[in-house]
Amino acid sequence: MTLYLPVFFGHWQIMMIAFVPLRHRNDDEDFMHDHHDNIQKAAKALRDADALLITAGAGIGVDSGLPDFRGKEGFWMAYPALARLGKSFTDIADPESFKHNPELAWAFYGHRLRLYRTTQPHVGFRLLLEAAMMKKYGYFVFTSNVDGQFQSAGYAMDRIVECHGSIHHLQCTLPCCQEIWSAEHTKVMVDENEFVAQQPLPHCFHCEEIARPNILMFCDYQWIGDRTMSQTKRYQQWIATSWSAAPNAGEPPRPIRPCDRRGL
Q1: By the 8 A CB rule, do 253 and 208 touch?
Q2: CA–CA distance, 232 with 255 (Å, rounded to integer)
Q3: Are 137 and 2 in contact (CB under 8 A)?
Q4: Strand, helix or coil at 123?
Q5: What pTM was estimated for this model as a whole?
Q6: To 10 degrees, what angle do helices 28-48 and 12-19 make?
Q7: Distance (Å, rounded) from C-alpha 105 to C-alpha 56?
Q8: Which CATH superfamily is domain 4-245 in?
Q9: 77: enclosing H helix or E strand
Q10: Whose CA is closest to 66, among 55, 78, 54, 76?
Q11: Region 203-209: what's the mean pLDDT?
Q12: Which of 61, 130, 105, 136 minimizes the C-alpha distance to 202?
């Protein structure tokens, strides 16, 4: 029977031990004892699986040095300038912020774009990829992260679903059209002291309005989800093909919803 193993990095105590060195803890001995059986089960499941479905959220990037924005205080620790302004994550990660204060919105997303471009994925990404590539029916990644860490770590672009979009792609804020384009050559200069993005800001090539990341934000009805939908279709094809090829596989897993109207 084929086993599709969801790897939830939010439960890092199981999977992080399997793939990367464990952080020093005062209660390491009790921690290891309590979770020894789970670790062994996870390791066996990884060895025996014919295919690997990797589901990942912000927790996987923490050991690469990326913030996870846990709670208002965690977000403000990462962005003290926004704390001084009293801006929460939901305030700034809102498409309306590009209309009312685009310099501030692009200061936040421009800083994140630079951070994600320069951050090296930790060794756990590589170890997991090595395990995934050995599977008979391959692997797929389903992530809510917008940072592109999986691509940077060498995962195939056609084997990734980014359900909240990607900071490495842009769209019109209106939007005036359905086009999504690469942010590869986009540079956003940020005044770190004032925390404002300097002109010129990224703009739409068609109508000259301000551009924004192709990321699903909070209360976002302007997000263009075509790229994510294409990724999702490839994932569904992979599930259907590999599942039907496996003997005695039983019922296939339920489809994963590509997104909802909240994001990053």
Answers
A1: no
A2: 9
A3: yes
A4: helix
A5: 0.84
A6: 70
A7: 26
A8: SIR2/SIRT2 'Small Domain' (3.30.1600.10)
A9: helix 71-78
A10: 78
A11: 97
A12: 105
| pLDDT at residue 264 tops 80 | no
pLDDT digits (tens, 9 = 90+) for 70-98: 777 778 888 999 999 999 999 999 999 99
Q: What is the pLDDT of residues 131-153, one digit of tens each?
A: 999 998 999 999 999 999 999 99
Residues pairing with 211 in the sheet: 172
Q: How many Cβ atoms sit within 10 Å of the Cβ of residue 226? A: 13
| Residue 206 amino acid letter | H
State both tokens at 201: 């800001």
Question: Is the preceding peptide bond at 175 cis, omega within 30 degrees of 0?
Answer: yes
Question: Counting beta carbons within 10 angstroms of the beta carbon of residue 48, is it exposed (0 to 12), middle (13 to 18) or buried (19 or more)?
Answer: exposed
Between the alpha carbon of residue 83 and those of residues 1, 106, 139, 220, the distances in Å are 52, 16, 40, 23
Q: Which residue has the tokens 């596989």?
A: 249
